[in-house]
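Question: Now follow the chain.
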Amino acid sequence: MGSENQQKFQSFSFGTQVRKSPFSDAALRWGAKGFSVYNHMYIPRDFGDPVENFWNLVNHAILCDVAVERQVEITGKDAGRFTQYLSCRDLSSCAVGQCKYVLLTDRQGGIINDPILLKLAEDHYWLSIADSDVLLWAKGVAVHSGWEVDICEPDVSPLQLQGPASRDILRAAFGDAPADLKYYRFMEYDWDGVPLIISRTGWSSELGYEIFLRDSAFGDRLWEYLMQIGQPMGLRPGHTSSIRRIEAAMLSYHADMTLANNPYELGMDRLVDLDMEADFISKAALQKIAQEGVTQAQIGLVFDGAPITGSNDAFWPIIVKGKKIGYVTSAVYSPRLEQNIALGMIETAFADIGTKLHLDTSFGERAAVIVPKPFYDPKKTLAAKG
């Protein structure tokens, strides 16, 4: 079976410069029809109809290969001090066993990455990263820091189990303790001698968990075990849903934010603590930006016309009175809201809720209006419940 899957995967392969995950063959066996590249790795992005994948997620549960969320491991005597130096969010209250969504920022205040941080011990951290080379950045920062830190990529590969049935499936697979984790908490777990970390996190804004496999040799076995347990309970193989993440206004690195953006433009002020005692790389730059203000802001939009198919593959211009005043970063049709929705970046003078404008889309010109975001479940009650 393994050899047969390897031959099938060759039709997707770009060569050895892009890495397969420990779950790639299982995902292919369970119906993956297409892959994208993220963090120099293959990620399944097509299990058929994306709308069906969305409804599977919001009504039942899906299992997603997200091994592309590569871990940057920071250990050593100065690991806590160094990790704080990378991030503009105050980590002083972060407890062992806790996760935090953080921003890594450069000397100009630009966003390097927006990982989930996991604190495994006082001297042991993981950064579960989005799509940029944080390992190289962290190693570069450490070179002349004078701090005692070791930085590497460990053998860790996460799966996401997401959706309203995920807690019951996790309980059936691993017992009460992981299923009862509080939001943004994690625990170490021994699965018949295979080391896991299980966290109450995920990229869906639904109830969900991430299962971090700490030995890649067991990828196939873990996937099959979860599907065997979960399929009778509604679990389906799937991929991270663009529909659901845009409904939740969850930002995608390279699309909705880049190194050219700072936290204030993105409305992420809550992730910046300029008053904390500890120093961090972007402190001076973000103090200046906070004082001077920003010239552009991220917004939510709804726009008219027939439902668009797929998502945007270009940054559509946002037009007011014939003038380009911004661009759409992510757009999709939400079958639940029965509405075309989008995220965009716009000049602050035009960023008020209710402002009417036009989009120059690949589906023709569309009238649009700025609306509050997230578009659905704005208080994230689904992900945080229980």
